Amino acid sequence: MYDVKKIREQFPMLNGKIMQGHPLVYLDNASTTLKPQCVIDAINNYLCNETANSHRGDYDLLFNMDMKVLETRKVVAKLVNSEPNEVVFTSGDTMSLNLIAMSYGFQFLKKDDEIIVSEAEHASNLLPWYEISHLTGAVIKFIPLDKEGRLTVENLQKVITKKTKIVSIAQVSNVLGNVVDVKSFAKVAHENGAVLVVDGAQSVPHMPIDFKDSDIDFLTFSSHKMCGPTGVGCLVGKYELLKQMWPYFVGGGMNVSFNKNIEMVPYEPPMRFEAGTLNLEGICGFKAAVEFLLEIGIENIHKHDQELCDYAISKLEKCDDIVIYNKNSRNGIIAFNKKGVFAQDEATLLNSKGIAIRSGQHCAKILNDFLGTPATCRMSTYLYTTKEDIDAFVDALINGGDILDAYFN
Ligand SMILES: Cc1ncc(COP(=O)(O)O)c(C=O)c1O
Q1: Between 55 and 181, residue with greater pLDDT
Q2: What average pLDDT score do residues 256-265 get?
Q3: Which residues, in sequence order, are bridge partners of residue 324?
Q4: How confident is the model at residue 408, as a pLDDT?
Q5: Are 182 and 171 within 8 A, CB to CB?
Q6: Are 99 and 235 spatial neighbours (Cβ–Cβ below 8 Å)?
Q7: Of 108, 113, 285, 329, which has the highest C-beta tally within 10 A?
Q8: In which residue ranges of the chain is CATH 3.90.1150.10 found?
Q9: Cβ distance 391 to 398 under 8 Å?
Q10: Backbone angles phi and psi of 87, in degrees to 5
C-alpha cells in the first residue's frame, strides 16, 4: 500500500515550509526534486564522519570511500539493470550527454554521417550534437513528431539511413511527458548500424528502465531529479562501447601511466572517464536516494505519478479556459496554458499561493513552434505529491483572482 503521508514525513521541505504565507505545494519535480532526510543524513555523514578522497585506499577512511563509490555503482546498476562497471559518475545528465558526444561522437563520426535527434529534445541533448556536427561535418536530422508530439518507430524509420551513426532521444519529454519505446528504437538503430543514446533525465526517476533488455547503448540521468543531490549523475554505457572510447576529460585518477613522450594510458572504464576528484558527498547522497527509491519501488512511483496525472487532467478538462498540450501522456508532467494569460504571469500568480510550477520553454526551445505558443506552464509530480496538492493547484488556477494581484499584493 502506497503511503504518501508516511513518505512526506521524510521530507523536511514538506513539513512546515511556508511560501508567500501558504504551505509549499511543490509541483516542479521535472526541474528538480526535494530531498528526504536519509539523503541529507548521508551527505552530512560524509562531511562529518567519512571525509576522505577516493582512489586506492592507503588508509581506512580512503579505503572506505572507495568501497562507497563501488557500492553506489552497484546500487545504480541495480536500478537500471546494467553492470556496475558500466556506470560512470558525472556531474549530471548534461555532462553525461556532452561526454558521449565529445568522446564517442568525436571519435567515430565523420563528414556526412548522420545524428538523429528530435524537436522535443532538451538543450542538453541537442547542443552537444550541434557541437559534434560543427567539429566533424556530421549532419543533424530530426525525427518528425506525430500529432501529439510523440516519437514513433515509424517516424524514426522514415529518417534513419545507413549513414546514421547516432540516434539520441529523451525517453520521456520534459515538456510533454511522452514516453518513447526505447527497445524498438534500439532495434531500428542497430539494424542500421547506429547506436542509441537515451536521455533518461525524466524517465529513470519515474519508471522502471531495463538497460540490458532494452539494448540501450548509452543512458544518462541526474541524481537531483530522483531525490538525490545536485552535481552528480551518470552515464551508463555498454562496456564494449565504453572500452572503445577515448576519454574526453583527462587528469588525475583516470590514467595508468603517462610519460614525457606525450603518451598516456587510461584506466579501463568506468574510471577512465572520471578525471579529477569525484563529487563524493554527492555520491553518498545519490546512493541513499537510489536506495530510497528502490525501497518504495519504481513501479509504485510510476503508478502514483500516473494516478495523479489522471486526477489532475480530469479536473483541468472541466475548465474551458485551460489549454492542455499533452492530455494523453500520463507521466506526471502536464503542459498547459490559461487562455489569454502569459505563462509566466500564471506561474507568478500560483507562486503567490505558495504553488511552485514552471513557465517558459523548459530548455526545449524548438518545441514551441510545434506547440504553436511562445511559452507554456508545466506542473510535474513526484512520489510525495498528493491529491490535495493537485486540488490546491487547480483551485488557484481557476479561482486565483486577478493576475495583477500576484504582482502588487
Ligand atoms: C529531458 C532532459 N534532459 C536533460 C536535462 C538536463 O539535466 P541536468 O540539468 O540535470 O543536467 C533535463 C533537465 O531538466 C531534462 O529534463
Answers
A1: 181
A2: 98
A3: 336
A4: 61
A5: yes
A6: yes
A7: 285
A8: 4-27+297-408
A9: no
A10: -100, 115
Percent of the chain with pLDDT over 90: 90
Q: How far is the CA of 118 from the centre of ligand 1 (A)?
A: 15
Q: What atom of ligand 1 comes closest to residue 224's alpha carbon?
A: 10
CATH class, range 4-27+297-408: alpha beta
Q: Which of 174, 216, 200, 184 is nearest to 298 (CA)?
A: 200
Asked if residue 195 lies in contact with residue 245, where contact means CB atoms within 8 angstroms, the answer is: no
Pick the CATH number of 40-295 from 3.50.50.60, 2.40.30.10, 3.40.640.10, 3.90.550.10: 3.40.640.10
Ligand 1, pocket residues at CB < 6 Å: 30-31, 92-94, 122, 124-125, 170, 174, 199, 201-202, 222
Quick one: how far is CA 43 from the chain centroid? 21
Catalytic member of 48, 319, 363, 377: 363
- CATH 3.40.640.10 placement within the chain: 40-295
Report the length, in residues, of the chain: 409
Taking the CA atoms of 185, 186, 190 and 191 in sequence, report the sign of the dihedral they define. Answer: negative
Span 178-203, average pLDDT: 98
Ligand 1 centroid vs 49 CA: distance in angstroms?
32
pLDDT digits (tens, 9 = 90+) for 360-402: 988 888 898 888 898 999 999 999 999 999 999 999 999 877 7
Cβ(293)–Cβ(144) under 8 Å? Answer: no
Cα gap 230→34, rounded to integer Å? 11
Q: Is the pLDDT of residue 409 over 60?
A: no
- For residue 47, the tally of other CB atoms under 10 A from its CB is 12
Cα of 124 vs centre of ligand 1, distance in Å, is 6
Q: Which residues of 177-216 are buried (b: 16+ CB within 10 A; e: fewer)?
A: bbbbebeebbebbeebebbbbbbbbbbbbbbebebeebbb
pLDDT at 406: 62
Mutate which of 100, 122, 227 for ligand 1? The one with the most ligand atoms within 8 Å of its CB, which is 122
Name the residue type at position 334.
I
363 in active site: yes
